[in-house]
Predict the 3D structure of the following.
Amino acid sequence: MQTNTWYLPAKVFKHANRYIFGVNTMVKPMTQDALMSAYGGESMAHMRYLIFAEIAEKEGFKNVARLFKAIAYAEQVHARNHYERLKDLNVDAKVVAGAPFGPGNTSKNLELAIRGEVFEIEEMYPVYMEIAKYQGEKNAEVSFKWALEAEKIHAELYKKAKEYVDKGQDMPLEGNVWICPICGHTHVGKEAPDKCPVCGAPKNKYVGF
């Protein structure tokens, strides 16, 4: 199992393609827009959580910082999956994607993180999945579904972290925060799952934080 990997090596790209992408065809415009927007949103979330991790570290919330770093990596995985699905394109495009702004202390940053995750869970990804499903874009639908399942876990972890931070305490974490580098599934524990419950990736693919 890998630990604290901040890049996606070529073998991971190859593994991800084997899980997601079959014969690639040009994605229909509405699904393209959804993929671009999701890519933009996940890319911003990745950077935002790294910033939040630095703040949490300075404030003495070591485990919350670790959580932010781990979930930042999961968002990178989501962004890669969305971006890779658009590999037949060769264009410059303006991406429209929302993000919560106004970084502050760790309590406020967790509030921003929760709000972003809840938006993705309740609005963004369900809509994008319906678009992809309607247009018969199975690969995009899978990419959105994988992200949605991870965001549900992220929201709950952030809510739990905020409960502790608001009492002036660091969040207890038993073991590592494990991220599947194929779909972004997130698990807290001493060991990674034997198999990813979302995409089926084996235990040794998980990255620990």
About this structure: The helical segments are 10-20, 29-58, 62-84, 106-134, 138-165. Residues 1-24 have pLDDT under 50 and may be disordered. Residues 64 and 186 are 15 Å apart (CA to CA). The domain at 25-170 is CATH 1.20.1260.10 (Ferritin).
